[in-house]
Amino acid sequence: MKASTAHWKGHAEPETTLLRAFQARRLHHGWLLAGPEGIGKRSFALAAAAHLLTRSPDHRVDHFDGDMDSPSGRLLLQDKHPDCHYITLGPKDDKEARKAEDGKPFETARNIKVDQIRSLQKRLTVRPSLADRRVIIFDSADLMERNAANALLKSLEEPPADTVFLLIAHNPGRLLPTLSFAGLDMAKIDALLSEIADHGDGTHRARLALGALVANKANRDRFQALLAYAPRFAARRIRDLRDERLPGAIAAWQEIGALASRAVVLNLDASAVAFQIGSLLARLAPPR
Questions:
Q1: Any alpha helices (H) in the chain, and if so which ranges?
Q2: What are 53-93's pLDDT values in tens digits?
Q3: Is the same domain home to 102 and 207?
Q4: Which of these, 42, 37, 44, lies nearest to 10 by C-alpha position?
Q5: Measuring CA to CA, which residue among 28, 72, 54 is closest to residue 179?
Q6: One domain, residues 145 and 194
């Protein structure tokens, strides 16, 4: 990964949004850079990282303007800045890892692995060592395996101080809910939905726990996040079904979508809706 100094067309609005937040010292910890491949998301992320790591909020400009002649800038150009982490597909296996260590071309894995996230999280336990903040770029976040996504979600929900995540996503529909859902215990919601879809929840424990997470007006945002996420979760699960469960699973997905659509309009009880969503998901569980 090498820092970019290039400017581009078509990204003025997000660039201005990020810069204004930085200059106002109200920079959110997570930014999703979503869109088709080839539109410049990676260049945007690298230029943003260069600006955040080499400039102060008092540097008033209307575009990214990383100081690449500074010590930090030179380290970025050499891919050696200790506070800039670039997470992407690693080597496929140990053999390919040895090739990478020798500087040879290597075959990459199909997904970003949970071990990569755990290794990153260890680094996040200490403060930035050179800059005033740390920047972490995921290229791309929609290539994370499920365990990796869940691990990252925990960091996004409880972000380390002075850390900015830039999540590149070519297909954001594959992501677990982050950023706008950060801080809403979505990792717990995903875990409960997975438990129900995998095991059926014969004791109702998981469904009751799901209802408790969204009950009361104080959890209104979390309830709305569940309504947005549950149909996507069900759709992703039924893609892998090839047995007799498929027709019932498709019907359950359709019912979940319909329930989510009318829940807010009709002001339905949040915990009851969550319980019903869980009951519908239970149809996806293997027979016992």
A1: 12-23, 41-54, 71-77, 94-101, 114-123, 146-157, 186-199, 205-214, 220-238, 246-265, 270-281
A2: 999 999 999 999 999 999 999 999 999 999 999 999 999 99
A3: no
A4: 44
A5: 28
A6: no
How far is 186 from 191, CA to CA, in rounded Å? 8
Q: What CA–CA distance (Å, rounded) separates 205 from 185?
A: 18
CB–CB of 141/167 below 8 Å? Answer: yes
The residue with tokens 């677990």 is: 176
74 and 37 assigned to the same domain: yes
| 192: three-class secondary structure by DSSP | helix
Is 168 among the domain residues?
yes
Q: Specify the 3-state DSSP secondary structure of 48.
A: helix
pLDDT > 70? residue 111: yes
- The token pair at 83 is 């506070």
Nearest to 51 by CA among 3, 2, 115: 3
Reading the block at residue 260, the tokens are: 């989510």
pLDDT class of 48 with cuts at 50, 70, 90: very high
One-letter amino acid of 48: A
Reported pTM = 0.63
Q: What is the Cα gyration radius of the chain?
A: 21
Better-scored residue on pLDDT, 76 or 161: 76
Range 225-253 average pLDDT: 84
Preceding amide of 140 cis, omega within 30: yes
